[in-house]
Amino acid sequence: MSITDDDRQYQVVINDEEQYSVWPAETQPPAGWRGVGVTGDRASCLAHVDEVWTDLRPRSLREWLADRH
After folding, report:
1. Three-state SS at 60
2. Which end of the chain is more exposed for a tag (fewer CB within 10 A), N or C?
3. Model pLDDT for residues 35-69, shown as the tens digit of each residue
């Protein structure tokens, strides 16, 4: 199944390290993940993730590096 053949609805989720993913909208995200309020088809959710997740480093690493300066 390709992204364009998938007619399910998805939600954008984030974890405590500010890493993003998409998860089927009809199910609860896995432990440690929470929805950010964005739902839609998979392609639009992935487009949102591409737009907002510009620094792929985990939050803890970004904070550690910031503290070292």
Report:
1. helix
2. C
3. 999 999 999 999 999 999 999 998 999 999 999 97
